[in-house]
Design goal:
Elements lengths: L6 E5 L7 E7 L3 H6 L2 E3 L10 E9 L2 E11 L10 E7 L2 H13 L2 E3 L4 H8 L5 H12 L3 H11 L2 H25 L10 H20 L1 H9 L1 E6 L6 H9 L17 E7 L2 E7 L9 H16 L2 E7 L18 E7 L14 E2 L8 H10 L4 H4 L8 H22 L4 H19 L6 H11 L5
Helix pairs in contact: 4-5, 5-8, 6-7, 6-14, 6-15, 7-13, 13-14
């Protein structure tokens, strides 16, 4: 375990609460706290995972009554001796305790330094360390589930499984190289191809999950589109429950994309109120329409609004969608046409009165399947992870091409190793080492017993 020369301290909770937690970590954490903590016994004599009531004092001056929780190395978040001081949430009290800790031998932690120490101590891999920030920043139930699964190692375990299978393939090929004079083929080429293709499908599944993972992390983008004055801004205001977008009877009022976030049943949505689509000679309005088309291309859900007063049931979307996008057709102002028969699959609403808005919310939520998150499935949410998976996929395709072309075993082995190198950048596990290959060979193939 890496031992750091200094002891660090910092608040572990956001400002403004009734209770605050100050975390102290390092080889001298217990001794540093004992210089300001007055309890029944010194913390240096306490067992790990115990909580102690006492007070913080500056000499004879009382600062606060606190609870001090002791964690002994290596069974702590950072892998070091640690203390978590639970105090009252007063900004003055927090400042005083931190001042006393630093005067007693600690220093203020740099941003993310506790998690860096946890990573260096082997408590977290790189993907899990990144998930800590995502967990803190999560603003919906789905985003929390996504980050929590990654922090618990769900994504890392999926990558470790792929790595083990690639190690197995490399071990088979290395055996062939060792017995090249006997012309022994330990890895049947057809079976090798099938295994590599199966690994490719699993990598592909992780790559495809990025569309959902990134949308959950950043908010599912929903483009509200339609002709001018169809009620797009009124609908956005209705969903938000407040007047955020300007509403006017003048066509073309919205000339830029307005973005707002709304949490619907545990999923964060990013609504994009766009400029109305129509033919116009107004240069600024044309620029707004161009941005509308760009918003449609970025959206996961396109909410197309039509006016009940002008509907004939045969309106074409006016734009094309990708296979991974969902189109929801909404007929607005249905209160102006009682008894109107809606086109199949369309939702009727009145953005002004609120009629049909609950059904629209349900339809939006149903369009995003997040059950995989709650079952612990691996879902990719980081662009860095997606890029590494893309490179791993490209390397695997190259290895399959080498296999089809009958290239030498050593070249094929190196290309499979390249796949593991790219996957390894996600968790910082690294490429396959020679010792791992040897260990795998002797444990599974019993060469020489």
């Amino acid at each position: 375990m890496i031992r750091h020369p200094d002891t660090i301290a910092a608040p572990a909770t956001a400002a403004g609460g009734a209770i605050a937690v100050i975390r102290v970590s390092g080889s001298d954490a217990l001794a540093v706290c004992d210089r300001i903590f007055r309890g029944r016994a010194p913390l240096t004599e306490a067992d790990g995972y115990t909580v102690h009531f006492g007070r913080i004092a500056d000499g004879e001056r009382f600062v606060d009554e606190v609870l001090a929780t002791v964690f002994r190395a290596p069974r702590s978040y950072t892998g070091e001796d640690s203390v978590e001081i639970s105090c009252h949430g007063s900004a003055f009290i927090i400042f005083e305790i931190l001042r006393l800790l630093t005067a007693s031998g600690a220093r203020m932690a740099e941003p993310g330094e506790f998690t860096i120490r946890a990573y260096l101590a082997g408590k977290l891999d790189l993907a899990q360390a990144e998930a800590v920030a995502d967990l803190i920043a999560s603003s919906s139930r789905a985003a929390h589930a996504l980050a929590a699964n990654q922090l618990r190692g769900g994504f890392s375990r999926a990558l470790d499984t792929l790595r083990e299978r690639l190690l197995h393939l490399v071990s088979l090929l290395e055996l062939e190289l060792d017995f090249s004079e006997e012309e022994v083929e330990f890895a049947g080429r057809e079976q090798l191809r099938e295994t590599m293709e199966e690994i490719g499908r699993e990598i592909g599944s992780l790559r495809e999950s990025f569309a959902l993972g990134n949308a959950i992390r950043e908010g599912v983008p929903v483009a509200i589109v339609g002709t001018p004055n169809v009620g797009k801004s009124t609908l956005l205001n209705r969903l938000l429950g407040e007047e955020r977008a300007m509403v006017s009877e003048i066509a073309g009022t919205t000339r830029d994309v307005i973005e707002e976030r709304i949490n619907i049943d545990g999923v964060l949505f990013r609504f994009l109120d766009t400029a109305g689509i129509r033919s116009t000679d107004d240069r600024l309005e044309r620029m707004g329409i161009q941005r509308t088309m760009e918003s449609i291309s970025r959206a996961r859900i396109v909410l197309r609004m039509l006016d009940a007063a002008a509907i004939d049931g045969n309106e074409a979307p006016g734009f094309s969608l990708r296979a991974d996008q969902t189109l929801l057709t909404v007929i607005n102002k249905i209160d102006t046409r009682p008894g109107l028969t809606l086109p199949a699959g369309a939702l009727g609403i009145s953005a002004r009165s609120g009629e049909g808005i609950d059904e629209l919310r349900k339809a939006l939520r149903a369009a995003v399947d997040v059950e995989a998150l709650y079952h612990g499935d691996a879902v990719v949410s980081s662009s860095r992870h997606r890029e590494a998976l893309d490179e791993a996929h490209e390397a695997l395709c190259s290895a399959l091409e080498s296999l089809r072309d009958g290239r030498p075993t050593d070249l094929l082995s190196e290309e499979i190793r390249r796949v593991t190198r790219h996957l390894g950048t996600i968790t910082a596990r690294g490429e396959i080492a020679s010792e791992e290959v040897l260990g795998n060979i002797f444990s599974k193939f019993c060469i020489g017993k």
